[in-house]
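can u pls check wat happens w/ 6-O-phosphono-beta-D-fructofuranose
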Amino acid sequence: MVKRLGVITRDCAGINAALRAVVRTATSKQAEVLGIIRGYDGLIDGELRPLDRRAVSGIINLGGTILKSARSERFLTEEGQRQALLTIERHKIDGLIVIGGNGSLTGAHVLAAKYGVPVIGVPATIDNDVNQVDQCLGADTAVNVALDALDKIRDTATSLERIFVVEVMGRDCGYLAMKVALAGGCEDVILPEQDFDLNEICQEIQAGNAQGKVSWIVIVAEGKARAQDVATAITLLTGLETRIAVLGHIQRGGRPTAIDRLLGAKLGSAAVEALLAGETDKCVALKDEQIKLIPLETAIKPKKLIFEPEYRLLKILS
Ligand code: F6P
């Protein structure tokens, strides 16, 4: 029977809501929770903090993670993994909950499959690129944060009649770029999942320009191109002035939306229940509008997303 849980987090909006749900669900079932500080590095170094119900009050609305986070190079090595295992044994941790994206979930799979540690994952990444998962924690807030920034850029683009190229995050996945472009009423979007033709984009800009359309916003997914390169090429090909904006890490922060708070509450709670029920090497995730258990081995495989229908809609509406 799992009595003491460890919890590791990455950082994005909704993770604190999930952490609160983990702690409060666990304590309601007489299990203790140890928060692991700075991700897998904290597991290696034995940096832990007991979390009771009060320790997670007032955090449901906070972005980031109260546990701090880090990318751990050491956990990628056998030596690092063995040290992590020693911490788990020393602190008598019966099971782990890992809240994060592909890197974190890959680490979770290693602990479960290679070392037999009971582990349940919670997919949380603004990239929304966890395989078989419809909606990762943090993705909805990131779309809304980027959209808010984009609306402000549009004010200037419209007032000054300018072309803007806006770069959004997402690593190798175009999810964030596609959603922001469609919801923001943008003229075009350059995605990792699709080929793009700069000449075609420029011809459209010139044709629009000839009919009096003077402001333009093109979204670029960071996994496909750099905003600066696209903007320079547009100026070269059209002779028109361009400006760029790289939204960067503002997209990973911010107050979680209601969708992310609700998802955090449900997934955090479901993760504890799954672990206490003896499940391991799986993640709890939203799929087909239900909370399901997905094997981590499947979840960490590359996700294939198809954006053609949404892209076609964007071109019709723009
Ligand atoms: O995976 C989340 C993410 O924010 C990506 O969208 C981005 O490419 C990357 O992390 C940035 O990583 P870092 O914070 O280490 O610069």
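Residues 71, 101, 125-127, 169-171, 222, 252 surround 6-O-phosphono-beta-D-fructofuranose (CB under 6 Å).
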